[in-house]
Design a protein that fits this description.
34% helix, alpha/beta, globular, FAD/NAD(P)-binding domain, 15 helices
Length: 493
Amino acid sequence: MQSLAGESVVVIGGGIGGLSTACYLADAGADVTVVEKNEQLGGRASRLARDGFRFDMGPSWYLMPDVFERFFGHFDRTPSDYYELTHLDPHYRIFFKDDDRVDVTPDLERTKEIFEEYEAGAGETLERYLEKSRENYEVGMEHFVYEDRSRLRDYMTLDVARQARGLSLLGSMQGHVEDYFEHPKLQQIMQYTLVFLGGSPKNTPALYNLMSHVDFNLGVWYPEGGIGSVVDGIVDLGSELGVEYETDRPVTAIKGREGAFLLETPEGSMRPDLVVSNTDYAHTEQELLAPERRGYDADYWEKRTYAPSAFLLYLGVEGDVPELAHHTLVLPTDWDDHFEQIFDDPQWPDDPAYYVCVSSETDDDVAPEGHSALFVLVPIAPGLEDTPERREEYRDLVLEDLADHTGEDLRERIVLEERFCVEDFASRYNSYQGTALGLAHTLRQTALFRPPHRSKEVDGLYFVGGDTTPGIGMPMCLISGQLTAEKLVEDHG
């Protein structure tokens, strides 16, 4: 990158995108400070520690290891300089609610055999599907993710036409998967990763079949110490590059423009030359900027499609939980109703699909001896009424469902319990309607249809994170940090 020497930059928000941007900007010579409203860095990748138990509060899947290698490689480091990885086996376990159970392992030949048990010819079909997924991933990442095509004219080139030839660009994931597999359970296995993108099979573009390459070919990993260790690694890298960090310091207003910003905080004002916001895009525009300085009005945000919120139970339990794998999914045989109760008719799902993370299955250090640490995550619609009474009622429903369909009854073994839901996402992360992830990846909210990295109204103000390109998830936010930094260097280097 060109030099940003002499430029002072404040990054508002210490999530993955903000931490990534800070590293790139410091490497380019800028004087960078990250200010975070909460008591710890990481944003949604925060940690919860209580009574000897330790939980990743948000992201818990380490996917797309190539993205992390590329990020650290930019600074002549490797992920192993900061944390160690374990390849999970099984990658994950699925309990269907008709007493069926599937383990997806790193052994692709075994997975093909499992697919064949459900549908004749599905094993070879899986191989063809994954080859298409690999092609979409390699072309898509290199030419449409790491290259930020934020304007329509960026797509009107021969190079784009050549690279896009053959990509699965149109249609929904539901239609795309149905072209390969008839059995509904196989369709669910190929689509569950859409939860990481905050969408449903019917509203997520077919291009995201590339996630199956991530799942089956690149594998599912666990960083020793959890995702929090990845956050620590990025923070340590930033410190080595000269980044300074301040926690417990919320920004309450953004005033001024390039070279003369004034950021108001309870601890006093800050006066950087440039500003990068890693808080939720809507919060920055609607709460931190004056009306005449906003790129989008309230109506714009009201009409967006948001990724789900979540009902979360963080549980410390006595004994082992042998029926559960490190990553476990519990799915109704027909999950359409659950997605409809998130996107079409918002309400608390009455037959939920949910995820259980048992990090103590792999890591002995996250729970006291003789205990297990796990959390249960149920995707729910953002903006739902979230009361203590509703949480208590839903907690009982979920734990009963877990016992009925996995054989692990935790109810009499819980020694630690914490809950997190819509109101907590809104208050802790300033997320719009309490969404857990941000803007969903619908066709109208992908690529150039997501809000831009440059502010539309304020010179010198930039945005990073899941609401911008390339989108939701830790790897995408790492890349978002690179793209945002490139904009600053282009404008000021």
